[in-house]
Amino acid sequence: MNTHDLSLLGWTDSLAAELPAGTVPARVARVDRGAAEVISADGHHHVKYGSRVRRASSDDPVALPCVGDWVALKELPEGRHELEAVLPRRTAFVRGGVSRTSRGGLSGDGQGQVLAANVDLVFVAEPSMHATDFADLGRIERLVALAWESGGTPVVLITKSDLFERGLDDLLADVAAAAPGVAVHAVSSVLGEGVALVRDYLAGSRTAVVLGPSGAGKSTLVNALAGDGVMETQLVRAGDGRGRHTTVHRELIPLPGGGLIIDTPGIRRVGLYEMTDGVDLVFADIEALAGACRFGDCGHDGEPGCAVQAAVESGELAERRLESWFKLQREAAWMAGRTDARLRKEQQNRWKIIHKEMRRSGRNRP
Ligand SMILES: Nc1nc2c(ncn2[C@@H]2O[C@H](COP(=O)(O)OP(=O)(O)OP(=O)(O)O)[C@@H](O)[C@H]2O)c(=O)[nH]1
Ligand SMILES: [Zn+2]
Q1: Which ligand is nearest to the CA of 157?
Q2: Ligand 1 atom with minimal separation from the 268 CA
Q3: Is 219 within any annotated ligand binding site?
Q4: Torsion of CA 183, 184, 186, 187, to 10 degrees
Q5: What pTM did the predictor assign?
Q6: Is 214 assigned a ligand-binding role in the annotation?
Q7: Which among 143, 215, 253, 324 would be 20 to 30 A from 264, CA to CA?
Q8: Helix, strand or coil for residue 121?
Q9: Cβ(230) to ligand 1 under 6 A?
Q10: Does the beta carbon of 174 sit less than 6 angstroms from any atom of ligand 1?
Q11: For the domain 277-338, what is the CATH superfamily, name and number?
Q12: Is the separation of the CB atoms in 261 and 222 below 8 Å?
């Protein structure tokens, strides 16, 4: 069994302080109905969920382990392990569910789902050219809002920068205006430009995800960062007893130069997240202008004395940006309306109790 230096997987002293006594730390590389693939100091393990995790998650799927989670393993006889607890998450990509009380053909069972946890950096990949169109600023705004919402730090990557011979600087300036306070970089995985810079963000064993539309060059970038070995073939016993090689897509990818990338189908198909604070952050310029509106609750939609509308008229604020803000505000409100606030609160409280309980039982254990 190969050994892993846990700090290379992102293990920190503050996490160590949360580890219940008598358990071993591990990071979730992948989950699979009732069990997880984890990496601990002594290698990979396939672990089943212990009764505490099963109980907590039957009430609330948010308590289910997910890729990126740090977990506590309990050693069982014969070298087996059980997943005893999920350590507190620093950040989380949550897909909001539909309210338990909602009716009328909406899918979902009213509960949120955590798609990835403990993600430090969110690379928002948007191609400089998409078919015959330039980078889509509205999509960048949406993904940056999702990134802020997760608790991670967004970084915008304008990919396929080699497709631009002239005018790239103007595009980057437009993108920077659409994502205030967020670093924007041009990347060409084909030419290898900007790839080292992306790698630098991951120094100190940080964990990142790459969001972006299909064809943005996400896989190409991850391959450029990881080199070979992203796809790992594994010997699987087929039904007839003979070995068979299959390609296993690892969802937590440790990079050779340090740092980790989380790449899951769920993260790739981002769409319906709750975003409220995230939208406010990505439109910080509009929020700042709004301070000067005559009415405190100004909707910037024709009210008298609206400083935001005035900024659009003077050309200080792009009209496209205000429209994009309206759109994301509506969407955020719609999502919030679909999720039962009471249920959400309850989930948060339950999390607090679980962690408290976990710590207490950890201390009491011999
Ligand atoms: N010109 C150019 N093409 C690129 C670059 N990076 C990727 N491509 C090409 O763009 C296409 C899509 O790249 P992928 O890496 O598969 O894109 P993706 O974002 O992973 O797409 P999905 O898997 O559908 O989400 C491929 O044909 C790549 O060869 C680049 O830097 N420059
Ligand atoms: Zn206003």
Answers
A1: 1
A2: 25
A3: yes
A4: 60
A5: 0.76
A6: yes
A7: 324
A8: strand
A9: no
A10: no
A11: Probable gtpase engc; domain 3 (1.10.40.50)
A12: yes
